Amino acid sequence: MKPGLEDRIAVAMFRETSESLKHLFWKHADNMNTKGALLVSAELTARGIAPYFRLNLDGSPSRGVSHIEANYILMVADLQWIIARYPKHKTNWNRAQSIFNPGTFLRTADYLFWDGIRTGGQVAKALGLTKPQQLECCWIKPIAIGHWQASLTRQLPAMRSLITDHVRSKDRRDEGRQDLTVKRRTNLWLCSQLAGKKPQQTADYYHMLTGEKLARNLVAKQLGKIPRKRHAKL
Fold first, then answer.
1. Would you list the DSSP string of 139-168?
2. The whole model's pTM is what?
3. Rounded to whole angstroms, how far apart are CA atoms 141 and 133?
């Protein structure tokens, strides 16, 4: 029997890097291709890449996704993550609990979205998400958290430049290896801000961003080598 379209897509996605899948997810979301975006989202979730870390985090202008269908895609991608990551989570609203039932998942998602009337903060309240859970989401969060995360993203170019200067002045390895160190430390800086500078939580976020697991002691060591810069507080 020939594999179906979804099976062929799954095989093709398996060969792609997580970075490539992030770009593919946003391509589908920008084009309002719900089915394609959610297939890619499911693969990213299986790899442990949280929805927030699928955003463009290189410090350039954020994506202008504002269409109601695109926001619906972002919400459902968040829900995919929550049910996979926190299968025993209890929601505030009884009806919202049915997102954990595959048979009623999409119907419940439609109810939560309510044709775009409900905000991400309202959906977060309905689900009873903790602050750390909201930080992992792309859309399901209050405006204040979204603004705070955006302020961190805006600081990334300056932070990357600061880290680059520091590494160039201290590291005697070739520039290619220095660049890898700069990228890792910049990512760790962002994750540490989200984690309140806690090494283990920073390591967890780093894994959700890159798919790479780092030991807590290595994270603490790397954080100690990052130049200090004032940062936004929530």
1. SSS-HHHHHHHHHHHHHHHHHHHHHHHHHH
2. 0.88
3. 9
User: Which residue stretches of 114-224 are H helix?
Assistant: 120-127, 131-136, 143-170, 175-194, 199-210, 216-223
pLDDT digits (tens, 9 = 90+) for 138-194: 999 999 999 999 999 999 999 999 999 999 988 788 888 889 999 999 999 999 999
Contacts 24+ apart (CB under 8 A), 127-135: 127/82, 127/89, 127/91, 127/92, 127/93, 127/96, 127/99, 128/89, 128/90, 128/91, 128/92, 128/93, 129/82, 132/201, 133/82, 133/86, 133/89, 135/52, 135/194
Assigned token pair, 62 = 């954020």
What is the DSSP secondary structure assignment for residue 101, as one 8-state letter?
Answer: S
Percentage of residues of the chain with pLDDT beyond 70:
87
Output the six-digit token pair for 25. Answer: 């997810």
- Contact 36/100 with Cβ under 8 angstroms? no
